[in-house]
Amino acid sequence: MSRPTVAVVDLKSLRSNFALAQSLAPGANAIPMVKANAYGHGMIEVSRALAESAPAFGVASIDEALTLRQAGIQQPILLLEGTFSCDEVAIAADNNFMLMVENLVQNDAIVNASISQPIIVWLGIDTGMHRLGFQPKEAIQAYQALKNSDNVAKPIIAASHFACADDMGSSATSAQLAIFDQWIKSQTLASGDIIKQSLANSAAILAWPKTHRDWQRPGYMLYGNSPFSEEQDNADKLIPVMSLQSAVISIRCISSGESVGYTANWTAKRDSTIATITVGYGDGYPRHAPNGTPVLINGVRCPLVGRVSMDMITVDVTDLDLVSIGDKVVLWGPELPVNEIAHHCDTIGYELLTRMPSRVPRIYVN
Ligand SMILES: Cc1ncc(COP(=O)(O)O)c(C=O)c1O
Fold first, then answer.
1. Which atom belonging to ligand 1 lies closest to the Cα atom of 201?
2. Best mutation site among 29, 80, 98, 127 for ligand 1, i.e. most ligand atoms within 8 A of its Cβ?
3. Is 262 designated active site?
4. Catalytic residue among 35, 143, 196, 223
5. Spatial distance between the Cα atoms of 247 and 250, rounded to a whole number of angstroms
6. Radius of gyration of the chain (CA)
7. From CA 73, how far away is CA 255, in angstroms rounded?
């Protein structure tokens, strides 16, 4: 017997979500974003599960890319932040990694490198998010330098990232798109080159068809949760991939007026039955989850009461007809969206999934 706290990862749902991303832009390549341990789901298992249909994978660093190579993944791997030092350029060339180029230091590192084969380069253009990428004017010189370099495979891919694609009411996405399109138009006119393009993250794939270009970069949607806080037709077809599960390990009756847990921050207003579950912030369940956050016990939503401990939480099960030690508990999953838990905790589902620690065994099904 071992601790019943596990993250069940349904690979069939993962494949279905990826197929949705592909079907929304059938003329384009969709690259699964598997950085940050595939948003907590296990980057090797997720990449292997998608390897048959994915043309490439996206990660945040060369270390993540090498982990995939060592696991036998053969596709090109895109480093979304490019290189962090010059020596990484040769490693990228040797391993068929594609490099995002976001600044002049990275640009020079590629152009001046002595490498085994040309590298596929993605030129990052800052169209308004102001986090990474060349300003559109600077991107013209960067593009020329890359184009003239034998170290760079052609065609170059121009890329940008949206700040607000998950907000359908915001004008920011259209404004970023207009800047990007203007840049592509002027460069195409000036050079006659065909420039491949990549813009769309999950929200853009789901809801902004004008942003669908040659390469899509789906992340969060693959894991089956919506990047939107409102309902959205395509996002409603996603199936959550991870189910964080545990079990009841203790049950007690307390009298009205008695408190539960560290700091005694919840006091029973009636005689109550309290179930203790073996999951806590040491398992990635958010410590700041407030009283009332829903927890599924035997399929019924019950309110969290008392502070989340490192290894346990306490739940008010007074209204449950039957509850026993060993009963199944779901903290989030298809029946209880992680976005809903995140909303209670004033964060986003991305964070809850991504910071799931290794202590929670991932159980892969389907
Ligand atoms: C450059 C880039 N592209 C794509 C993605 C995927 O975004 P999402 O998980 O919202 O689909 C990210 C996520 O951080 C990113 O940084």
1. 11
2. 80
3. yes
4. 35
5. 9
6. 24
7. 57
In CATH terms, the fold of domain 242-365 is Lyase, Ornithine Decarboxylase; Chain A, domain 1 (2.40.37)
Question: Which one from 223, 262, 285, 328 is the annotated catalytic residue?
Answer: 262
Q: Is the peptide bond before 136 cis (omega within 30 degrees of 0)?
A: no
pLDDT digits (tens, 9 = 90+) for 321-338: 899 999 999 999 999 999
Indicate which atom in ligand 1 lies nearest the CA of residue 227.
10
For residue 58, the CA-to-ligand 1 centroid distance in Å is 9
Residue intervals of the chain classified under CATH 3.20.20.10 are: 11-226
219 lines ligand 1 (CB under 6 A): yes
Taking only the tens place, the pLDDT of each residue in 37-83 is 999 999 999 999 999 999 999 999 999 999 999 999 999 999 999 99
**What is the C-alpha end-to-end distance of the chain, expressed in Å?**
23
DSSP 100: E
Distance between CA 324 and CA 91 in Å, rounded? 55
Alpha helices in 11-161 (DSSP H): 11-24, 35-39, 43-50, 62-70, 87-94, 104-111, 136-147
Please say whether the structural domain 11-226 has been given the CATH code 3.40.50.300.
no
- Rounded to two decimals, the pTM is 0.95
Residue ranges, comma separated, of all CATH 2.40.37.10 domains in the chain are 242-365
Neighbours of 299 (CB within 10 A): 10
